[in-house]
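Q: what does this look like with S-adenosyl-L-homocysteine bound?
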Amino acid sequence: MVRALRYPTLARIAAAMLIGLAAPALADDFDTQRGQMVADQLVQRGIRQEQVLRAMERVPRHRFVPAHLAARAYDDGPLPIGYDQTISQPYIVALMSELLDLQPGRRVLEIGAGSGYQAAVLSQMGAHVYSIEIIPQLGEAARTLLFALGYRNIHVKIGDGYLGWPEAAPFDGIIVTCAPSQIPEPLKAQLAEGGRIVIPVGGPHVQRLVRLTKTQGRLVEEKVVDVRFVPMVNEKGEKY
Ligand code: SAH
């Protein structure tokens, strides 16, 4: 009798252990992929700021892409997020975050919340983030997800980011993840002294990523690299 009972009991314990292991095994898989992404796509290409690398090691990018693309979340490229928009390539997110050169506790304005991923990375770096998204469904989804993941220092507003967020200005950093043909005047005005704007500027096919630093009230421009972002549009869908 004793022996007959022992085996089923062991089998049940073994089964319970396997079920218990299944979920952490999946989580570990994404953690591994994220570590690889940081090493292969960021460190190898020259991203050096520890706070950027640590943030991108921690933010669960697979939660910011549509569920059916989760397995490709750590690939070296952008991915569609619906409404003809994309989540940027990890390297571009890291590069733009590094270019802002932020200290923890600083205020950052993002134009183009999209999935909310870039905002999460900045928040994880210790910034207070204000992010504007013009497509209401994307903005609301980003807000809900960021709250569910526990980010409490990100504010998402639905609206036209060309105009900036005057009530929350001035900002120490402004990051623009959609491309206008010119740098929006309201954003220049809402930048604090010593602050930086990182923005792709140009036509629909290729843009130049530039960094502007406000020094004694003037903006000093540095060109960084050619990039390709979706255009910045107004509420009628017309390109800026
Ligand atoms: N930063 C995002 C990627 C954004 S893709 C992420 O991490 O996922 C660019 C986004 O800019 C799109 O969601 C697009 O709808 C938005 N956008 C375009 N024009 C805009 C405008 N004038 N104001 C605010 N958002 C805008």
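The CA atoms of residues 157 and 190 lie 16 Å apart. Residues 1-5 have pLDDT under 50 and may be disordered.
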